[in-house]
Amino acid sequence: MRSLARxxxxxxxxxxxxxxxxxxxVRGQPVTFTADPFSLGIASGAPREDSVVLWTRLAxxxxxxxxxxxxxxPVEWQIAEDxxxxxxxxxxxxxxxxxxxxxxxxxxxxxxxxxxxxxRFRAGGALSPIGRTQTAPAAGSTPARVRxxxxxxxxxxxGYFASYRDMARRxxxxxxxxxxxxxxxxxxxxxxxxxxxxxxxxxxxFRDRYALYKLDADLQAAHAAxxxxxxxxxxxxxxxxxxxRSYTTxxxxxxxxxxxxxxxxxxxxxxLPARARPKGPSATIYESYRYGQLLDVLLLDDRQYRSQxxxxxxxxxxxxxxxxxxxxxxxxxxxxxxxxWLDAAIRTSKARWTVxxxxxxxxxxxxxxxxxxxxxxxxxxxxxxxxxxxLDSIATHKPxxxxxxxxxxxxxxxxxxxxxxxxxxxxxxxTEFVGTSITAQGPNATALAAALKANSHVKYARSDIHGYPxxxxxxxxxxxxxxxxxxxKQKQSPVRRLATFVVEDGVAGVKPG
Length: 513
Ligand SMILES: [Fe+2]
Fold this sequence. Notes:
By secondary structure, the chain is of the alpha+beta class.
Protein backbone atom coordinates (compact mmCIF):
# COMPACT_ATOMS: atom_id res chain seq x y z
CA MET A 1 0.00 0.00 0.00
CA ARG A 2 1.24 3.45 -0.83
CA SER A 3 1.22 6.05 1.90
CA LEU A 4 2.58 8.92 -0.12
CA ALA A 5 -0.77 10.61 -0.66
CA ARG A 6 -1.18 11.16 3.03
CA UNK A 7 2.28 12.58 3.60
CA UNK A 8 2.44 16.26 4.18
CA UNK A 9 5.40 18.47 4.85
CA UNK A 10 5.52 21.87 6.43
CA UNK A 11 8.29 24.05 5.13
CA UNK A 12 9.56 24.95 8.58
CA UNK A 13 10.01 21.28 9.45
CA UNK A 14 11.59 19.93 6.29
CA UNK A 15 13.52 16.71 6.65
CA UNK A 16 17.21 16.55 5.83
CA UNK A 17 16.62 14.92 2.45
CA UNK A 18 14.44 17.80 1.36
CA UNK A 19 16.87 20.32 2.75
CA UNK A 20 19.58 18.72 0.62
CA UNK A 21 17.51 19.34 -2.48
CA UNK A 22 16.17 22.86 -2.23
CA UNK A 23 13.42 24.26 -4.40
CA UNK A 24 14.36 26.92 -6.87
CA UNK A 25 14.00 30.40 -5.50
CA VAL A 26 11.50 32.45 -7.40
CA ARG A 27 10.86 36.13 -7.54
CA GLY A 28 7.41 37.47 -6.86
CA GLN A 29 5.26 39.13 -4.31
CA PRO A 30 5.54 37.20 -1.06
CA VAL A 31 2.33 35.48 -0.10
CA THR A 32 1.23 33.87 3.12
CA PHE A 33 -1.73 31.57 3.30
CA THR A 34 -4.15 31.50 6.18
CA ALA A 35 -5.11 27.91 5.32
CA ASP A 36 -3.61 25.00 3.36
CA PRO A 37 -3.37 26.18 -0.27
CA PHE A 38 -3.08 22.55 -1.43
CA SER A 39 -6.54 21.57 -0.20
CA LEU A 40 -7.46 20.11 -3.61
CA GLY A 41 -4.46 17.81 -3.72
CA ILE A 42 -2.08 17.24 -6.55
CA ALA A 43 -2.14 15.21 -9.74
CA SER A 44 -0.13 14.19 -12.76
CA GLY A 45 -1.15 13.30 -16.27
CA ALA A 46 -0.48 13.23 -19.99
CA PRO A 47 2.43 10.77 -19.57
CA ARG A 48 4.87 10.59 -22.47
CA GLU A 49 8.13 8.69 -22.57
CA ASP A 50 10.04 11.84 -21.62
CA SER A 51 7.47 14.14 -20.04
CA VAL A 52 4.53 14.44 -17.71
CA VAL A 53 2.18 17.21 -16.57
CA LEU A 54 2.20 18.05 -12.86
CA TRP A 55 -0.97 19.67 -11.55
CA THR A 56 -2.20 21.51 -8.52
CA ARG A 57 -4.49 24.43 -7.80
CA LEU A 58 -3.98 26.85 -4.93
CA ALA A 59 -7.23 27.10 -2.98
CA UNK A 60 -7.02 27.94 0.73
CA UNK A 61 -10.80 28.49 0.70
CA UNK A 62 -11.76 25.84 -1.87
CA UNK A 63 -15.55 26.20 -1.74
CA UNK A 64 -15.48 29.96 -1.90
CA UNK A 65 -13.73 30.68 -5.18
CA UNK A 66 -10.37 29.53 -3.86
CA UNK A 67 -9.86 32.44 -1.51
CA UNK A 68 -6.91 34.09 -3.23
CA UNK A 69 -6.37 37.68 -4.32
CA UNK A 70 -6.40 38.63 -7.99
CA UNK A 71 -2.63 38.32 -8.34
CA UNK A 72 -0.13 35.85 -9.74
CA UNK A 73 1.45 33.56 -7.14
CA PRO A 74 4.71 31.74 -7.80
CA VAL A 75 4.53 27.98 -7.28
CA GLU A 76 7.68 25.88 -7.24
CA TRP A 77 7.76 22.21 -8.18
CA GLN A 78 10.25 19.41 -7.74
CA ILE A 79 10.46 15.99 -9.33
CA ALA A 80 12.68 13.24 -7.93
CA GLU A 81 13.69 9.68 -8.68
CA ASP A 82 12.91 8.62 -5.14
CA UNK A 83 10.16 9.20 -2.63
CA UNK A 84 12.49 10.85 -0.11
CA UNK A 85 13.59 13.43 -2.70
CA UNK A 86 17.29 12.65 -2.27
CA UNK A 87 17.58 12.47 -6.08
CA UNK A 88 15.79 15.56 -7.35
CA UNK A 89 16.32 15.57 -11.10
CA UNK A 90 14.37 18.69 -12.03
CA UNK A 91 12.69 21.66 -10.46
CA UNK A 92 11.09 24.83 -11.68
CA UNK A 93 8.39 27.33 -11.04
CA UNK A 94 5.12 28.47 -12.55
CA UNK A 95 3.01 31.54 -11.98
CA UNK A 96 -0.44 30.54 -10.70
CA UNK A 97 -2.71 33.22 -12.12
CA UNK A 98 -6.23 34.20 -11.11
CA UNK A 99 -7.49 33.94 -14.70
CA UNK A 100 -6.76 30.20 -14.55
CA UNK A 101 -8.12 29.74 -11.04
CA UNK A 102 -4.56 29.72 -9.64
CA UNK A 103 -4.09 26.29 -11.19
CA UNK A 104 -0.67 24.97 -12.15
CA UNK A 105 0.08 22.74 -15.13
CA UNK A 106 3.85 22.19 -15.18
CA UNK A 107 4.95 20.24 -18.25
CA UNK A 108 8.15 18.56 -17.13
CA UNK A 109 10.44 17.49 -19.98
CA UNK A 110 13.61 15.44 -20.20
CA UNK A 111 12.47 12.50 -18.09
CA UNK A 112 13.53 8.87 -18.55
CA UNK A 113 11.03 6.45 -20.07
CA UNK A 114 9.02 3.85 -18.18
CA UNK A 115 9.95 4.72 -14.63
CA UNK A 116 8.33 6.19 -11.53
CA UNK A 117 8.94 9.72 -10.30
CA UNK A 118 7.84 11.59 -7.19
CA UNK A 119 6.82 15.25 -7.20
CA ARG A 120 5.61 18.04 -4.93
CA PHE A 121 4.92 21.74 -4.95
CA ARG A 122 5.71 24.67 -2.70
CA ALA A 123 4.01 28.06 -2.49
CA GLY A 124 4.23 30.79 0.12
CA GLY A 125 6.05 28.51 2.54
CA ALA A 126 3.50 25.71 2.28
CA LEU A 127 4.40 22.30 0.91
CA SER A 128 2.04 20.05 -0.99
CA PRO A 129 1.54 16.34 -0.46
CA ILE A 130 3.86 14.11 -2.48
CA GLY A 131 2.61 12.44 -5.63
CA ARG A 132 3.93 9.47 -7.55
CA THR A 133 3.83 9.48 -11.30
CA GLN A 134 5.25 7.40 -14.12
CA THR A 135 6.45 8.06 -17.63
CA ALA A 136 5.35 5.98 -20.60
CA PRO A 137 7.75 3.25 -21.77
CA ALA A 138 10.23 4.02 -24.55
CA ALA A 139 8.64 4.05 -28.01
CA GLY A 140 10.74 1.14 -29.27
CA SER A 141 10.32 -1.05 -26.20
CA THR A 142 7.76 -3.74 -25.54
CA PRO A 143 6.88 -3.66 -21.86
CA ALA A 144 5.95 -7.01 -20.31
CA ARG A 145 2.68 -5.52 -19.13
CA VAL A 146 0.71 -2.31 -18.76
CA ARG A 147 -2.05 -2.03 -16.17
CA UNK A 148 -4.70 0.64 -16.00
CA UNK A 149 -8.16 1.39 -14.61
CA UNK A 150 -10.90 3.27 -16.44
CA UNK A 151 -13.35 4.87 -13.98
CA UNK A 152 -16.31 7.09 -14.88
CA UNK A 153 -19.45 8.69 -13.46
CA UNK A 154 -18.60 9.78 -9.94
CA UNK A 155 -21.83 11.27 -8.62
CA UNK A 156 -20.83 12.89 -5.32
CA UNK A 157 -24.26 12.81 -3.73
CA UNK A 158 -25.01 9.18 -4.49
CA GLY A 159 -22.07 7.60 -2.73
CA TYR A 160 -18.57 7.79 -1.36
CA PHE A 161 -15.50 7.29 -3.49
CA ALA A 162 -14.32 4.09 -1.76
CA SER A 163 -13.56 2.72 -5.23
CA TYR A 164 -10.78 5.30 -5.49
CA ARG A 165 -9.48 4.29 -2.07
CA ASP A 166 -9.19 0.74 -3.43
CA MET A 167 -7.73 1.89 -6.75
CA ALA A 168 -4.99 3.96 -5.08
CA ARG A 169 -3.62 0.82 -3.41
CA ARG A 170 -3.25 -1.11 -6.65
CA UNK A 171 -0.23 -1.47 -8.84
CA UNK A 172 -1.32 0.50 -11.90
CA UNK A 173 0.61 2.36 -14.57
CA UNK A 174 -2.20 4.70 -15.51
CA UNK A 175 -5.80 5.78 -14.91
CA UNK A 176 -8.01 6.69 -17.88
CA UNK A 177 -11.05 8.67 -16.73
CA UNK A 178 -13.90 8.47 -19.23
CA UNK A 179 -16.08 11.32 -18.06
CA UNK A 180 -18.71 12.53 -15.63
CA UNK A 181 -15.92 13.59 -13.27
CA UNK A 182 -18.48 15.97 -11.75
CA UNK A 183 -22.25 16.12 -11.97
CA UNK A 184 -23.74 19.50 -12.65
CA UNK A 185 -27.15 18.64 -11.25
CA UNK A 186 -28.55 16.92 -8.22
CA UNK A 187 -30.51 13.77 -9.05
CA UNK A 188 -31.22 10.26 -7.85
CA UNK A 189 -32.16 8.98 -4.42
CA UNK A 190 -30.60 8.06 -1.07
CA UNK A 191 -27.95 10.77 -1.10
CA UNK A 192 -25.07 10.37 1.35
CA UNK A 193 -23.85 13.97 0.89
CA UNK A 194 -25.03 17.04 -0.96
CA UNK A 195 -23.82 19.48 -3.60
CA UNK A 196 -25.51 22.10 -1.35
CA UNK A 197 -25.77 24.59 -4.22
CA UNK A 198 -27.62 24.60 -7.53
CA UNK A 199 -26.57 23.85 -11.09
CA UNK A 200 -23.35 25.69 -12.05
CA UNK A 201 -23.42 27.85 -15.17
CA UNK A 202 -20.58 30.33 -14.52
CA UNK A 203 -16.84 29.74 -14.22
CA UNK A 204 -16.91 30.61 -10.52
CA UNK A 205 -19.71 28.11 -9.91
CA PHE A 206 -18.01 25.35 -11.89
CA ARG A 207 -14.75 25.96 -9.97
CA ASP A 208 -16.57 25.48 -6.69
CA ARG A 209 -18.18 22.26 -7.97
CA TYR A 210 -14.78 20.82 -8.94
CA ALA A 211 -13.40 21.93 -5.59
CA LEU A 212 -16.18 20.09 -3.75
CA TYR A 213 -15.42 16.86 -5.60
CA LYS A 214 -11.66 17.25 -5.37
CA LEU A 215 -11.78 17.73 -1.59
CA ASP A 216 -12.58 14.01 -1.43
CA ALA A 217 -9.54 12.30 0.11
CA ASP A 218 -10.02 9.04 -1.81
CA LEU A 219 -10.17 10.82 -5.16
CA GLN A 220 -7.06 12.79 -4.18
CA ALA A 221 -5.28 9.52 -3.30
CA ALA A 222 -6.00 8.04 -6.74
CA HIS A 223 -4.65 11.17 -8.41
CA ALA A 224 -1.54 11.16 -6.22
CA ALA A 225 -0.81 7.51 -6.98
CA UNK A 226 -0.90 7.41 -10.80
CA UNK A 227 -0.77 9.62 -13.89
CA UNK A 228 -4.21 10.14 -15.41
CA UNK A 229 -5.57 10.59 -18.89
CA UNK A 230 -9.02 12.15 -18.93
CA UNK A 231 -11.85 12.96 -21.30
CA UNK A 232 -15.15 14.57 -20.46
CA UNK A 233 -18.69 13.35 -21.05
CA UNK A 234 -21.87 15.40 -20.69
CA UNK A 235 -22.18 16.13 -16.96
CA UNK A 236 -19.03 18.24 -16.90
CA UNK A 237 -21.23 20.72 -18.80
CA UNK A 238 -24.93 19.78 -18.96
CA UNK A 239 -26.95 16.57 -19.14
CA UNK A 240 -27.07 15.03 -22.64
CA UNK A 241 -25.78 18.10 -24.46
CA UNK A 242 -24.74 17.86 -28.09
CA UNK A 243 -22.34 20.42 -29.55
CA UNK A 244 -24.00 23.82 -28.95
CA ARG A 245 -27.39 22.44 -27.94
CA SER A 246 -28.75 21.49 -24.55
CA TYR A 247 -32.31 20.76 -23.55
CA THR A 248 -31.59 22.65 -20.32
CA THR A 249 -30.32 25.88 -21.96
CA UNK A 250 -32.24 26.26 -25.20
CA UNK A 251 -30.49 29.30 -26.65
CA UNK A 252 -27.26 28.04 -28.33
CA UNK A 253 -25.44 31.35 -27.76
CA UNK A 254 -26.28 31.21 -24.07
CA UNK A 255 -25.37 27.52 -23.87
CA UNK A 256 -21.96 28.14 -25.46
CA UNK A 257 -21.20 30.55 -22.59
CA UNK A 258 -21.99 27.76 -20.13
CA UNK A 259 -19.86 25.35 -22.17
CA UNK A 260 -16.94 27.79 -22.19
CA UNK A 261 -17.09 28.15 -18.39
CA UNK A 262 -17.41 24.39 -17.93
CA UNK A 263 -14.53 23.52 -20.29
CA UNK A 264 -12.33 26.14 -18.62
CA UNK A 265 -13.04 24.73 -15.14
CA UNK A 266 -12.39 21.18 -16.39
CA UNK A 267 -8.99 22.17 -17.75
CA UNK A 268 -8.12 24.09 -14.60
CA UNK A 269 -8.79 21.03 -12.44
CA UNK A 270 -7.26 18.24 -14.47
CA UNK A 271 -3.60 17.36 -15.22
CA LEU A 272 -4.00 18.30 -18.86
CA PRO A 273 -1.35 19.76 -21.14
CA ALA A 274 -1.44 23.36 -22.37
CA ARG A 275 -2.58 22.20 -25.81
CA ALA A 276 -5.93 21.13 -24.30
CA ARG A 277 -6.56 24.57 -22.79
CA PRO A 278 -9.91 25.93 -24.00
CA LYS A 279 -10.25 28.89 -26.30
CA GLY A 280 -13.69 30.20 -25.46
CA PRO A 281 -16.21 27.37 -25.87
CA SER A 282 -13.76 25.13 -27.78
CA ALA A 283 -11.01 22.80 -26.58
CA THR A 284 -9.16 19.91 -28.21
CA ILE A 285 -9.04 16.95 -25.85
CA TYR A 286 -8.85 14.13 -28.40
CA GLU A 287 -5.29 12.82 -28.46
CA SER A 288 -3.18 9.66 -28.66
CA TYR A 289 -0.75 8.25 -26.11
CA ARG A 290 1.79 5.48 -26.74
CA TYR A 291 3.04 2.89 -24.27
CA GLY A 292 5.92 1.45 -26.27
CA GLN A 293 4.98 -1.21 -28.79
CA LEU A 294 2.37 -2.65 -26.44
CA LEU A 295 -0.37 -0.02 -26.28
CA ASP A 296 -1.74 2.97 -28.16
CA VAL A 297 -4.50 4.86 -26.35
CA LEU A 298 -6.76 6.95 -28.59
CA LEU A 299 -8.79 9.40 -26.51
CA LEU A 300 -11.99 10.66 -28.14
CA ASP A 301 -14.38 13.55 -27.53
CA ASP A 302 -17.89 12.52 -28.55
CA ARG A 303 -19.70 15.53 -27.03
CA GLN A 304 -18.27 18.71 -28.48
CA TYR A 305 -18.84 18.04 -32.18
CA ARG A 306 -21.81 15.67 -32.35
CA SER A 307 -24.97 16.14 -34.41
CA GLN A 308 -28.21 16.97 -32.66
CA UNK A 309 -30.11 13.98 -31.25
CA UNK A 310 -32.28 12.20 -33.82
CA UNK A 311 -35.95 11.28 -33.63
CA UNK A 312 -36.77 13.42 -30.58
CA UNK A 313 -37.87 16.68 -32.23
CA UNK A 314 -35.32 18.86 -30.45
CA UNK A 315 -36.13 17.34 -27.06
CA UNK A 316 -34.14 15.22 -24.64
CA UNK A 317 -32.44 12.23 -26.31
CA UNK A 318 -34.27 9.37 -24.62
CA UNK A 319 -35.05 5.81 -25.83
CA UNK A 320 -37.50 6.11 -28.70
CA UNK A 321 -38.76 4.08 -31.69
CA UNK A 322 -36.42 4.08 -34.68
CA UNK A 323 -36.93 6.81 -37.28
CA UNK A 324 -35.29 7.63 -40.66
CA UNK A 325 -33.35 10.63 -39.28
CA UNK A 326 -31.28 8.31 -37.06
CA UNK A 327 -29.51 6.61 -39.95
CA UNK A 328 -28.74 9.71 -42.01
CA UNK A 329 -25.25 9.52 -43.44
CA UNK A 330 -24.37 13.10 -42.49
CA UNK A 331 -24.87 12.48 -38.78
CA UNK A 332 -21.61 12.71 -36.86
CA UNK A 333 -20.47 11.78 -33.36
CA UNK A 334 -16.89 13.07 -33.57
CA UNK A 335 -17.07 15.83 -36.19
CA UNK A 336 -15.19 15.69 -39.49
CA UNK A 337 -11.80 16.80 -38.17
CA UNK A 338 -11.69 14.33 -35.29
CA UNK A 339 -13.02 11.55 -37.50
CA UNK A 340 -10.17 12.14 -39.98
CA TRP A 341 -7.66 12.30 -37.13
CA LEU A 342 -8.98 9.01 -35.69
CA ASP A 343 -8.84 7.27 -39.07
CA ALA A 344 -5.19 8.32 -39.42
CA ALA A 345 -4.43 7.28 -35.83
CA ILE A 346 -5.94 3.83 -36.39
CA ARG A 347 -4.10 3.51 -39.71
CA THR A 348 -0.74 4.33 -38.12
CA SER A 349 -1.19 2.43 -34.86
CA LYS A 350 1.43 -0.32 -34.78
CA ALA A 351 0.88 -1.31 -31.16
CA ARG A 352 -0.08 -4.79 -30.05
CA TRP A 353 -3.21 -3.25 -28.49
CA THR A 354 -5.05 -0.20 -29.79
CA VAL A 355 -7.42 1.04 -27.10
CA UNK A 356 -10.13 3.44 -28.26
CA UNK A 357 -11.08 5.31 -25.08
CA UNK A 358 -14.40 7.08 -25.49
CA UNK A 359 -17.49 7.98 -23.53
CA UNK A 360 -20.27 5.44 -24.03
CA UNK A 361 -21.44 2.00 -25.26
CA UNK A 362 -20.51 1.50 -28.91
CA UNK A 363 -22.25 -1.83 -29.53
CA UNK A 364 -25.81 -1.64 -30.82
CA UNK A 365 -28.38 -2.21 -28.07
CA UNK A 366 -31.87 -2.58 -29.47
CA UNK A 367 -34.43 -2.05 -26.67
CA UNK A 368 -37.38 -2.94 -28.87
CA UNK A 369 -40.19 -5.34 -28.18
CA UNK A 370 -42.22 -7.49 -30.57
CA UNK A 371 -40.18 -6.52 -33.61
CA UNK A 372 -40.38 -2.74 -33.08
CA UNK A 373 -36.85 -1.40 -32.80
CA UNK A 374 -36.11 1.21 -30.11
CA UNK A 375 -32.82 2.97 -29.47
CA UNK A 376 -31.30 5.34 -26.93
CA UNK A 377 -30.55 8.49 -28.89
CA UNK A 378 -27.77 9.90 -26.68
CA UNK A 379 -25.37 6.99 -27.39
CA UNK A 380 -23.78 5.55 -30.53
CA UNK A 381 -27.18 4.02 -31.42
CA UNK A 382 -28.25 7.58 -32.21
CA UNK A 383 -25.32 7.93 -34.63
CA UNK A 384 -25.10 4.64 -36.57
CA UNK A 385 -23.46 6.14 -39.69
CA UNK A 386 -20.68 7.61 -37.55
CA UNK A 387 -20.25 4.27 -35.80
CA UNK A 388 -20.10 2.46 -39.13
CA UNK A 389 -17.38 4.83 -40.35
CA UNK A 390 -15.36 4.19 -37.18
CA LEU A 391 -15.74 0.41 -37.46
CA ASP A 392 -14.94 0.59 -41.19
CA SER A 393 -11.72 2.36 -40.26
CA ILE A 394 -10.79 -0.53 -37.94
CA ALA A 395 -11.80 -3.12 -40.53
CA THR A 396 -9.81 -1.37 -43.27
CA HIS A 397 -6.62 -0.54 -41.39
CA LYS A 398 -6.61 -3.69 -39.25
CA PRO A 399 -4.79 -2.61 -36.11
CA UNK A 400 -3.55 -5.83 -34.51
CA UNK A 401 -6.06 -5.75 -31.63
CA UNK A 402 -8.72 -3.06 -31.26
CA UNK A 403 -10.35 -2.70 -27.86
CA UNK A 404 -13.01 -0.07 -27.23
CA UNK A 405 -13.53 1.16 -23.67
CA UNK A 406 -16.41 3.34 -22.46
CA UNK A 407 -18.40 4.58 -19.49
CA UNK A 408 -21.54 6.73 -19.24
CA UNK A 409 -24.05 3.89 -18.87
CA UNK A 410 -23.61 3.29 -15.12
CA UNK A 411 -23.48 -0.39 -16.02
CA UNK A 412 -20.91 -3.00 -16.93
CA UNK A 413 -20.99 -4.25 -20.52
CA UNK A 414 -18.79 -6.64 -22.48
CA UNK A 415 -19.56 -6.94 -26.17
CA UNK A 416 -18.30 -8.16 -29.52
CA UNK A 417 -18.13 -5.43 -32.15
CA UNK A 418 -18.88 -6.62 -35.68
CA UNK A 419 -18.19 -4.38 -38.65
CA UNK A 420 -21.90 -4.17 -39.44
CA UNK A 421 -24.19 -3.94 -36.41
CA UNK A 422 -27.03 -5.19 -38.63
CA UNK A 423 -25.11 -8.47 -38.79
CA UNK A 424 -24.00 -8.65 -35.16
CA UNK A 425 -23.22 -12.36 -35.27
CA UNK A 426 -20.56 -11.89 -37.97
CA UNK A 427 -16.99 -12.39 -36.66
CA UNK A 428 -16.08 -9.44 -34.43
CA UNK A 429 -13.43 -6.96 -35.53
CA UNK A 430 -13.04 -5.37 -32.09
CA THR A 431 -13.93 -6.01 -28.47
CA GLU A 432 -15.72 -3.62 -26.16
CA PHE A 433 -15.77 -3.13 -22.40
CA VAL A 434 -17.88 -0.50 -20.64
CA GLY A 435 -17.22 0.31 -17.00
CA THR A 436 -19.92 0.79 -14.41
CA SER A 437 -20.10 4.03 -12.42
CA ILE A 438 -18.04 4.93 -9.40
CA THR A 439 -21.33 5.86 -7.70
CA ALA A 440 -23.98 7.11 -10.16
CA GLN A 441 -27.22 5.11 -10.07
CA GLY A 442 -27.69 2.67 -12.94
CA PRO A 443 -30.56 1.77 -15.27
CA ASN A 444 -33.30 -0.71 -14.41
CA ALA A 445 -31.76 -4.18 -14.03
CA THR A 446 -34.78 -6.08 -15.38
CA ALA A 447 -34.91 -4.02 -18.57
CA LEU A 448 -31.17 -4.44 -18.99
CA ALA A 449 -31.45 -8.23 -18.59
CA ALA A 450 -34.13 -8.27 -21.32
CA ALA A 451 -31.91 -6.19 -23.62
CA LEU A 452 -28.99 -8.55 -22.96
CA LYS A 453 -31.11 -11.49 -24.10
CA ALA A 454 -32.22 -9.68 -27.25
CA ASN A 455 -28.72 -8.55 -28.32
CA SER A 456 -26.59 -11.68 -28.63
CA HIS A 457 -23.35 -9.81 -29.42
CA VAL A 458 -23.57 -8.22 -25.95
CA LYS A 459 -22.06 -10.89 -23.72
CA TYR A 460 -22.48 -9.28 -20.31
CA ALA A 461 -24.49 -6.43 -18.82
CA ARG A 462 -25.05 -5.52 -15.19
CA SER A 463 -26.28 -2.26 -13.70
CA ASP A 464 -26.92 -3.00 -10.03
CA ILE A 465 -23.35 -2.50 -8.82
CA HIS A 466 -20.76 0.26 -8.72
CA GLY A 467 -17.00 0.14 -9.02
CA TYR A 468 -14.49 0.41 -11.83
CA PRO A 469 -12.82 -1.82 -14.40
CA UNK A 470 -9.14 -2.76 -14.48
CA UNK A 471 -7.12 -3.86 -17.50
CA UNK A 472 -3.87 -5.78 -17.74
CA UNK A 473 -2.27 -5.86 -21.17
CA UNK A 474 0.54 -8.24 -22.09
CA UNK A 475 1.73 -9.13 -25.57
CA UNK A 476 -0.37 -12.32 -25.37
CA UNK A 477 -3.66 -11.06 -23.94
CA UNK A 478 -5.84 -8.33 -22.55
CA UNK A 479 -7.41 -9.22 -19.21
CA UNK A 480 -10.29 -7.05 -18.01
CA UNK A 481 -11.55 -7.19 -14.43
CA UNK A 482 -14.94 -5.79 -13.51
CA UNK A 483 -14.32 -4.66 -9.93
CA UNK A 484 -17.34 -4.15 -7.71
CA UNK A 485 -17.68 -2.18 -4.54
CA UNK A 486 -19.74 -3.75 -1.75
CA UNK A 487 -21.63 -0.61 -0.72
CA UNK A 488 -20.99 2.83 -2.15
CA LYS A 489 -22.99 4.34 0.71
CA GLN A 490 -20.12 3.46 3.06
CA LYS A 491 -16.94 5.52 3.23
CA GLN A 492 -14.93 2.31 3.29
CA SER A 493 -16.17 -0.77 1.53
CA PRO A 494 -14.35 -3.81 0.20
CA VAL A 495 -13.97 -4.26 -3.53
CA ARG A 496 -14.33 -7.68 -5.14
CA ARG A 497 -13.87 -9.04 -8.64
CA LEU A 498 -17.30 -9.43 -10.22
CA ALA A 499 -16.20 -10.87 -13.56
CA THR A 500 -13.04 -11.38 -15.60
CA PHE A 501 -12.80 -11.38 -19.38
CA VAL A 502 -9.90 -11.93 -21.75
CA VAL A 503 -9.13 -11.01 -25.31
CA GLU A 504 -6.40 -13.18 -26.83
CA ASP A 505 -3.87 -11.56 -29.16
CA GLY A 506 -5.17 -11.73 -32.71
CA VAL A 507 -8.65 -12.94 -31.77
CA ALA A 508 -11.27 -10.20 -31.37
CA GLY A 509 -14.19 -10.97 -29.10
CA VAL A 510 -15.09 -11.39 -25.45
CA LYS A 511 -13.98 -14.59 -23.71
CA PRO A 512 -14.59 -15.44 -20.07
CA GLY A 513 -11.38 -15.17 -18.06
FE1 LIG B 1 -22.77 9.39 -15.89
